[in-house]
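Anyone? Bumping this.
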Amino acid sequence: MKKVKYSMLGLLGLSMIFIGCNDPGKSSNGALASSAAEKVYIAPGQRDSYYAFLSGGYSGNLTVYGLPSGRMFKEIPVFSQFPTSGYGYSEETKPMLNTSFGFVPWDDLHHPDISQTNGELDGRWIFVNGNNTPRIARVSLSTFETEEIIEIPNSAGNHSSSFITENTEYVVAGTRFSVPVPQRDMPINEYKGNFKGALSFISVAPDNGRLNLEFQILMPGFNYDLSRPGRAKSHGWFFFSTYNTEEANSLLEVMASQNDKDFIAAVNWMKIEEYVKNGGGTKMPANYAHNVYDEETHTGTSTMKKEVITVDPTDVPGAFYLLPTPKSPHGCDVDPSGQYIIGSGKLSADITVHSFDKMMAAIEGKKFDGEAYGIPILKFEEVMAGTVKSGGLGPLHTEFDDKGNAYTTFFISSEVVKWNVGTWEVLDRKPTYYSVGHLMIPGGNSRKPFSKYLVAMNKITKDRYLPTGPEMEHSAQIYDISGDKMELLYDFPTHGEPHYAAGCPAELLEPRSKKIYRLDENKHKYVTSSPDQARVERNGNEVHVYMSTIRSHFTPDNIEGIKVGDKVYFHITNHEQDFDVPHGFSIIGQNTSEILVMPGQTKTSVWEPKQVGVWPFYCTDFCSALHQEMQGYVRVSPANANVELSWSLGE
Ligand code: RUQ
Ligand code: CUA
């Protein structure tokens, strides 16, 4: 978590003091009501009422948890290779990790957002961002697989992403680091006035979710940290918090905290959409990957795109305004009514709330306080709705319930503070363990939050669990927020570093969850649709094995005529049509991972035999009582041998 690098020593000292005060042994744990255990206990065979999708941060992946139990159900690979399933190792999924920099099998995944219709969660897809090599991914909430990844050109540190508009018209990606656009060789100290901050709008096709980068707005060279869509009355607008409006290029921990106020940038995307539709904007050469996974061919393809439409904000008057916001704001959150925009000045004790109505009136009345690079700055007093005098320190992120309350995390003082939206009165506060970053209420970033549970995701674990060496998994706490006061229910470890999370009721996802792929719909190029079609074909040094699997047999299970120097492709089709019966495949000396093949699916594993011998392969997933019998052999002869290609079809 980077936001706290500024005067690290001072703040760290401070946070230690706070952590000291929050010693759980002395306070909160001892006071836990005995009924708390019952509230999170899910009896064997029973199910959780919510799914929570936690970002993995530097794991590059997304994890799925149940609430209230805190049980982890799955890790969904998105930006990182994942040997557990072979994602990023199988030939079909490698193209998903292609970029303009080549194969990039890792990223820093921060902010999941679930698709919406009319501002309410609809459970079709979840969008996530890759921070490091800017990418946006779309994950299916039916297969829980990554279906699409689009690279974002002209961007760097893709952090104010991946948030969606209230009918999933766009998924939005904003750059944290401004960069030269187009990229070029230039002195770093000429940053100011020359670097640009790209805000990218990627459309989402309503029927199949396909992504297309429609336009990029080239904003002044600030750092665009977080963003949220307008909703209900403010639908059509998007809000981005900024810091480093000083445009410093060195010693940012000091130099980027000079201005008392930075901005929340308000962007009227509907106006820009119209401008672009009418031929506005500039076509610019670009080079970025668009990777799509097809569920019928079970195969990903990567296409390089060569052009992007850029928009200069000064060309669209009335579409861009800057709202002064104190102390290097981090979180930028919009309440369920769409009326309030919350800026969390991370160096502050207070939370600043802007009013959408006041903003519109100030625009109307031209209540400006100068401009920045041609973008009008609105007068602070004219847009500010109120200040929450929190008494906490270091506000980061805010979520909302359905009763008009907001919940803000405070990193430095390690707590969640509940306050009223409208009176700005603090209603409750509870410690977290420790140094909380994001928090999540299912639907808390939509028009319709589900106000039962709140999950706080913490950066520092320290004494919460048994030590596991110098590194501990981060801790999360779940609170019951159905009453007036928050009630701490449970602690659970998370995986990687969860930044944001998204959650929804289980009944939204359960009915659409896919159980098998139908074999008769498998359109994979190398499918083996029945075991009698299993075969081995040689094409020069390339050998293609068409293999089928069913409990508990590989067809073929003996192959001869393979030579050192060959490249052997095992195309494995799983003939099971039962839920939850994958077969695995691995072979000795492979420089890749195993693959797991789901029922009805075809996946390809590559092997380049380097040593003469008879080498076994086997199923890696315990699939039946005779799983241990699910094995075979490949005979590998010297490169110059002339052993005939042959294989066994069995009975
Ligand atoms: S976000 S807490 Cu604040 Cu990307 Cu990490
Ligand atoms: Cu198939 Cu074990």
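Late reply, but here is one note on the structure posted above: The chain has two domains: 55-512, 523-648.
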